[in-house]
Sequence to fold (1396 residues):
Amino acid sequence: MRRTVHQLAVSTLALGAFAMVARSDEGMWLVNEPPRELLKAKYGFDLTEPWLQKAMLASVRFNSGGSGGFVSADGLIITNHHIGAESLQKLSPPGKDYYRNGYYAKTRADELKCPDLELNVLQEIIDVTDKVNAVVKTEMKPADAFAARRKVMADIEKESLDQTKLRSDVVTLYQGGAYHLYRYKKYTDVRLVMSPEVGVAGFGGDVDNFEYPRFNLDVCFFRAYENERPLKVQHFFQWSMTGPKQDELVFVTGHPGTTNRLETYEKLRHRRDVTLPYTLARLRALEAALAQFGERDPQYHQWAATDHHRAANSRKAFSGQYQGLLDSQVMNRKKADEAELTTWNGEGKPPVTLVQARRAFTQIADAQKVVAEFEREWALLERGDAFYSELFVVARQLIRLRDELPKPSSDRLREYRDSNLESLKFQLFSPAPIHAELERAKLTASLTWLAENLGGQHPVVVQVLVGKSPASRAVDLVAGSKLADVAERKRLFDDAKALDASTDPMIVLAKAIDEAARKLRKRYEIEFEEVERQGFGAISRWRFEKLGRGVAPDATFTLRLAFGVVKGYDVDGESLPFHTTFGGAFERAEKQGHRDPFVLPKSWMDRKAKLDLSTPFNFVSTADTIGGNSGSPVLNRAGELVGINFDRNRHGLVRNFVYTEVQARHIAVHSAAVIEALTKVYDCPNLVAELKDAKAGD
Amino acid sequence: MRRTVHQLAVSTLALGAFAMVARSDEGMWLVNEPPRELLKAKYGFDLTEPWLQKAMLASVRFNSGGSGGFVSADGLIITNHHIGAESLQKLSPPGKDYYRNGYYAKTRADELKCPDLELNVLQEIIDVTDKVNAVVKTEMKPADAFAARRKVMADIEKESLDQTKLRSDVVTLYQGGAYHLYRYKKYTDVRLVMSPEVGVAGFGGDVDNFEYPRFNLDVCFFRAYENERPLKVQHFFQWSMTGPKQDELVFVTGHPGTTNRLETYEKLRHRRDVTLPYTLARLRALEAALAQFGERDPQYHQWAATDHHRAANSRKAFSGQYQGLLDSQVMNRKKADEAELTTWNGEGKPPVTLVQARRAFTQIADAQKVVAEFEREWALLERGDAFYSELFVVARQLIRLRDELPKPSSDRLREYRDSNLESLKFQLFSPAPIHAELERAKLTASLTWLAENLGGQHPVVVQVLVGKSPASRAVDLVAGSKLADVAERKRLFDDAKALDASTDPMIVLAKAIDEAARKLRKRYEIEFEEVERQGFGAISRWRFEKLGRGVAPDATFTLRLAFGVVKGYDVDGESLPFHTTFGGAFERAEKQGHRDPFVLPKSWMDRKAKLDLSTPFNFVSTADTIGGNSGSPVLNRAGELVGINFDRNRHGLVRNFVYTEVQARHIAVHSAAVIEALTKVYDCPNLVAELKDAKAGD
Fold:
C-alpha cells in the first residue's frame, strides 16, 4: 500500500480521462496525484520528480491556519504578515506593538521565539483508502461504521507515529472518496525574524480586502530552529529577483483550507439557507463586539487586532460565498453537473456504482434535514460558538483530557488521539498572555449570541447564565478564573483530584455543559457526518469512473499544488494590469486623504524619494487558491519564488463552489517588492543577503 | 367631552390613590394628567397652570424623531446636534459638510431652510376615550373592532382638522386604556441657525454613547419661520445663565418615543426571545454595511453618517434592553407586579373588571404565539426591513397613495388618512438628495437580510431577486430608477396612468410585493394588535381601579413631563459628580491619544486657552427619559432652561421596562456650557444676545 510521491505521481497517468481541450486552470491538486498531463498539454511543462519533491519539502504549513515556504538553507521562512499576526501580537511585550509597528532582528540573537507556533513540513503521503474502507461494512449501523473508521484511522496514525516519529494524520479526501496518510516534520521552535508594519502589510484594510488593484507588503519572515540552532534545510525556494512576467505560468504550493465544489446541490442549498445565514449573523456580532471593544482604548485595540481582522476577513469571505449561492447561475451549473453525472450511461462501468451514487444524493439531502434540527445547538455548545473565550477552551481541554486519556486512543474524541496529543498540549500550555478585558468582551458577545439563538428560557441558557445578563455573567466568569496562569493549567492537568474539586467558574461551566455538548457531537458525527461521508464516498466512486482523478478533491488544509498564468483582467470596462507598483500605493493613500486604513507607515513616507516607484508591488494570476493559501509561495517554472500569495479578488470569492478565471484571481506580493522594501525602507542587509545568496541545496 | 389642559389637570386630583411615601421620580407624565400631588408632597413644588401652559407651548416636537424647545420670542429653537443631524446633512452642498464641520448663520439671511423638517407644537389635548370605546362592542370580531376603531379615530381627527386647521392625532395611551386627541401647530419652514462640529457634539462617539461622565456639546439651533418671517412666539424658555445646582429639582419636557413598562411578562418574554434577537441581528447587519460603505471613501462616509449613527445608537440601546431582559431581577419584578395586580381583592371595585383583566393576560400571551408565526415576514415586507432604501419608500408611497386615496379617509391604511396627508406629501416630495451609492449599499444589505431570513427558495425572495445575488439586484434597482428626481415623483403622483404603466424597477418591485405586504399587515393588525389592544384595555381598566392614574402611560412620542433631581451616583466604588467640565473634555481627548472618536475639533483646541475650563459641560438627573427625549429642554422650578437632554447612561437602558434611579440617569448639556462655547469658541454674539435678552413673552 505504501507509495511515495514519485510512485503515486506516475500511477496517476493511468487514471487518464482528462478532457484536455480548453481545460481551465482549476485545481488544488494533491502532490501525490499531480496534473502532469494537463501541464504538459496546456503549457508544455514537464512536472519533474525533483521539482515536485522540492515543492513539497520546501513548503510549510502554519498550524495556526496558513502557508509559507523555506527561502534559505538556514531555515528562513516567508509567509504573510496576516499569518504571522497572532505571533507578532503574542510576542509584543507591554508597551510594544510589533503587529502595528513591525520588527526586525538585526542578528540571530534578536530573533524572538513564538510562544505557540507549530509548523508542519510534509514528508510523505501514503494512500490508505483500502485499509480504511475495509473496516466499514455495508451492513453496519452508522454509529458502528463511524466508530470503526475512527478506530482504523487512529490506529494507522499511531502506528505511523511510533514507526517514524513524524506527525501522522489520516486525511479524508473527496469527502470520503479517499483516505491518505500524511507524515509531517513538526517544528515548534519558530522565531520571528522580520515583519513590516500592519499599515503597509494590510494597506487598505477591510475596504481593499478581496479587492484588486492592491498595494500590500503582506509578508513576514520567521526562522525554524532545532536544538536552539537555525534549522538546516536541504530544500528551499530560491528567490527570484525579477518576479513573473505577463502571461507567465506560475505555481502555488500551499494549504488551502476548505472548498465545497464536490458538495451536492441540496447540501449547498442547506449551506445557503441555514448554515451561512447563521454564520454571517454570528460573525457580524463578533466583529461588532471586537470593533467596539477596540474603539474604547488604544491598548484594547492592540489586543483585539488579530481577532478583529480574522472576524472581518471571514465575514467578507462568507458574504461573498452567500452572494454567490444566491446567483442562480452558480446553482444551475451545480444542478446541471449532477444531472450529467447521474445520467451518464457509464460506458460499461458497474451500474451498481451508479445506483449507489443516485441513492447517495437522496441520503445527503435527507441528512441536511436531520442536521437542521440540532445544527445550531451543536455549533453553540460543541463547536463553542457560545463560548468565544480562550479561558473556556482551556477549561474544556482540561476536563476532556481528564475524561478521554484513560480510554484507548482509538476510542477517544478524535482530537485526543495519541498522535495529536503533543500538538494539543503545546497549545494548551502556551505562555501567550490572555487579556481579561478582551476575554470579557468576547464572552459577553458569545453568551449574548447563545441567548439570542436559544431563547432566555432554554435550559442551557438558564444553566449558563444563572439568572444574570450575559454581560455580568462574563464579568464573573473571567474575574473568577485562574486559568490565564499556565502553572494553574499544568496543576489541574497533572492532578485529576484538584480538577474534580476545582471551583474555578470556567471549569465549573465547562463541566456543566459537557454532557449536553458531547451528546450533540455524537448526533452530529453519526446522524450527519457519517451519513454524508458514506454518501459522498459513493458519489466519488462514480465520479472516478467517469472522470478518473481529473477533478481534484476539495481543499482540506493539506498541501496542494495549483497553477495558472499571470494576467490582468477587465472589470466594468476597465483593464486592470497584472501588477501594481509602489507608486500606486502612494497615489491611493493620497487619494484617500491618508485616512485609516489608507495610512502608509512613516517609514514608507520618509523613504519615498529613495524608492524605485516603478517596482512591481502585487500581481495576480489565475491559479486556484482559497483561504489557507495565505502565505503560499508562488513559483515559476524553475521552481523559484516569484511571489507570496496573500488574497483573492472579490470575483474569486465564489471559488468555494465553482472555479472561474474570467475575472477571478489570486493576489500575491511580487518578489521584487520584498527586496526593494527590505533594502530601502527597512535596512535589512543581512536578510537581503540571505535571500540573494540562497542558491545551494536543491 | 372637550377639556383643556387646565381642566384635565385639575380633574386629575380626583383620581387620587397615589402612594405618596418614598415614591421614586418615575414617570413620563401626560401634560393633561400631571403629577401635581406628587410634586407637592415630595418636592413642595406647586405645578401651576401657567407653568404647565408654557411648558407645553414652548416645547417642540421634531417629527424626524426628537424634541426641542423655543428659546426666544423670534422662534429660535434648541435641540440636539444628533437630532438636527439629518437636516445638517441634507443641507450640505457638494464639497461642504455641515454635519462634520458645523454651521453658523451670522445673519438671518444666512439661515438655511431645511428641505423636509416638520416641527409640531402641541396646543391642546382632548380626552376622546369614551368616544372611541363606544364604537367597539364586546361581541365584535377583531376585524370589525379594528375597522370601527380606525374609523372613529380618523373621523375624530378629520373633524378636528376641519374645525381647527391644526394637525390632529388621536393617540392611543396605556396600550389601549385611553385615547386622547392631540392638536398641534405645524411648522415646515424651519431654518438652520447654528451647529457645532460633530467632533464635539458627538465627542466619544459610539464608545461614550450611553456612558457618563460625558463631554458633549450636543446642541443645534434652528428657527421656525412663518410666511418667510421668523415666527413670533409668546411662549419660550428663558435661558438660565447659571444652570442647575446639586440636588436641584428639574423637569424634562419632551417626546419620549417608546417604553414597555406596562407590557405583560409574556409579552416581554416574546420581546426578549423573538423580537429583540431579530432586531439586534438586523441592526448589526445594517451598521456593518454602513460602516464598511463609509470606510470606502470620505464622501461615502459623509453620506452614510446619520444612518450609521442611527443604527449604532439603536444597536446600543436595544443591546442594553436585551441584557436587561435576561436579568432575572427585572423579569421577576414584572412577574410580582402582575401577581399583585391580579390577586388584589378590589376593595369593592367591580369584580367583572378583574375577571376581564385576568383573561386579558392569557389573551396577550396567546397573541404572542400567533404573531410569532408571521412577525418576521411582516417586518421584512410590510415594515420594510427588506427594503432599506429611500427610493423604495417613495415607490411604495406612490402606489399606495394611488390605491388608498380613492377610499374614504376612515377606511384607508391609517397613515393615509386625510389629516396626515400634508405631512406625508411633505416628506414624499422632499428635495433632499438621494445618493445612488448609499442606496445601493443599503439595499444590498437589506436584500441580503431578506434572503438570510426567508431562505433563497422562498417565493418572495425569488420574486424580489429574480435569480440575481442581492448585490447585483441592488445595482439594477438603483441604476434603473428615476425616483431620485422629485419631478418624476410628482409626475407619477399626478398621473395614475403613468404610474400604472411605469417600468421603473423600484415601482415594479413595490407593486409586485404589495399584495403580500398588505396581507401581512392585515394579519398583524387584526390577529395581533387588535387582540393586544383589547387585552391591554382590560388590564388598564383594572389598574386604574387599583392605582388611578398613579402610573403614567408608556411613552408614545407625544409630549410628556418628567421630573427629577440633579445628582451624581456611585459606580464600581467610584463617585461620579453631577456635572463634568470643559477641562474634563480636554483631559479625556489627551488620555485617548486624540484618536477618533476622541478628536476635539480644531476650533476647541485653538481656543482652549480662552475657555474657562471649569465651565460645567454635562450634568445628570434622575428624571425619567427615553429615546425621543433627545433635545428635550431641562427646566428649573422657574421654568428656565438649565440644560438640553441628550442621552441616558447605560444603567438607564433598562428603563424601557423598569424605572430605576439608583444609578440610572439622563444626561444633559449644561446651559452655561452652551453660552461659554457660543461666546468663546464659535464667536456667535448675535445668538448669545438673543438667548440672554429673551426675557419677555411668558
